[in-house]
Dihydrolipoyl dehydrogenase
Amino acid sequence: MSYDLIVIGTGPGGYVCAIRAAQLGLKTAVVEKTSFGGTCLNIGCIPSKALLHASELFEEAGHSFAKMGIGVPAPKLDLPTMLKFKQDAIDGNVKGVDFLFKKNKIDAFIGTGRITAPGKVEVKGNDGKTQTLETKNIVIATGSDVAKLRGIEIDEKRIVSSTGALSLDKVPEHLLVIGAGVIGLELGSVWRRIGAKVTVVEFLDGVLPGMDGEVRKQAQRLFEKQGMTFKLSSKVTGVDTSGKKLKATIEPAKGGAAETIEADIVLVSTGRVPYTENLGLKEAGVTLDERGRVTVDHHYATNVPGIYAIGDVIVGPMLAHKAEDEGVAVAEILAGQAGHVNYDVIPGVVYTMPEIAAVGKSEEDLKAAGVAYNVGKFPFTANGRAKANQQTDGFVKILADAKTDRVLGVHIIGSDAGNMIAEACVAMEFGASAEDIARTCHAHPTLPEAVKEAALAVAKRAIHM
Ligand code: FAD
Ligand code: NAI
């Protein structure tokens, strides 16, 4: 059998690419070595959000129900059932991808794919048997893996990556998180809510590097209020596993006296790295950049004709929706259309409580680029719905070009920020000005009214402030 396209990897990049290619009439196959849906569905977005949802309700039941007049006994944790809830979320989504492959007549091969030559993909099944498939084009969508920390061995039992942290069979008394990025804060929140003491060690001097400075500061304050402890400008240099408790050695980032912190579980969440192991890239002559990412041009083409790459394995934010959009774009390019991703409008969301969402430039970005801008900011304390819900932490901040009023960045920290950022993405995709958002009717009483008010605030005419 010869294909128009073989996609290696069925994460959000790969499976979406395959579906779009099949929709466009390309004879398409996928190769997957573990489970359909990749990191995102199996050990990433979906299980983490299931646990975030369940643990948030657990905390609400304990803290917020009584003040709303809902009298329930103190919630009791049934961790195995919570983990089953998470597993059901995974299974349902993985089955959904299988259904979509069948619906779109995409052939799925289970095994490890290796490019033996342009147009040839060898699939080694779990039974050790191999077969070689022929194709006009190959898309590499093999995603990413956990970045290792020198001197700290992940065993996924006591020293875990996000994968182990999604499946702990007991709530740790003390969880030590290395890295105050997205994974550290999301999974740290999960285990804190259901009873762990959580300490987060971060190399830099604040949480969530890369996000807007004001949002980062507010986020840290709120996480501290919730009970997380941060040790900033610090690094973990080793973990002694010999005793009943783990003993982590922590030093100031710039060097200095070390201290020891005891913990039951250590979560290593210091980033992810592109995954290209055993893919045959070197032999095929595909070039990688200095960080091990597959090098591609604006059409996702590698230096070898007929071989393309998308998602976490190439440059850019390691996000599921970025991978998906690249999957669609490359499929359209292969079908002769003009596939395209607008990298200026890729939202990022941290699914903590409150959520933190951003799209476009931060104030720091604009200052560094010397762009003159106006800021419109609106706090949720002045939003009727947030007040009604008693969820008033956070604000919306809109950055607009000082000359043209074009929206350059939107930053939201607050309940449901992840849903609210979609409005900002649509506006920015259409090149909207702050005035456009300010003049758009928003339903009352809703949290997105704070987005409209922040847009009004750009021109210093917010109504409720
Ligand atoms: P992946 O999803 O990594 O998929 C790659 C697939 O390729 C895997 O299934 C792998 O088995 C397969 N593969 C690799 N090599 C081979 C081979 N040789 N042969 C066959 N198959 C192979 N992003 C968000 O946008 N929102 C979130 O809320 C979010 N939460 C996350 C939470 C966690 C804990 C983690 C770890 C990540 C999270 N991410 C989130 C990031 C997101 O999961 C990734 O950006 C996304 O999965 C990347 O998609 P991909 O298709 O590039 O690769
Ligand atoms: P990250 O890059 O978000 O954060 C890593 C943090 O670790 C940074 O703050 C960094 O300064 C710190 N760090 C690095 N080395 C350190 C060291 N030696 N000691 C102490 N701190 C150190 O990476 P993270 O959280 O592991 O997530 C990986 C990827 O997964 C991210 O790129 C993210 O895009 C994706 N992801 C996305 C989610 C979402 O969209 N909601 C959720 C979870 C993951």
About this structure: The pocket of NAI (ligand 2) is lined by residues 149, 178-184, 186, 201-204, 209, 235-236, 269-272, 317-319, 349-351 (CB under 6 Å). Residues 79-103 form the longest helix (25 residues). Residues 348-458 form a domain with the Enolase-like; domain 1 fold (CATH 3.30.390.30).
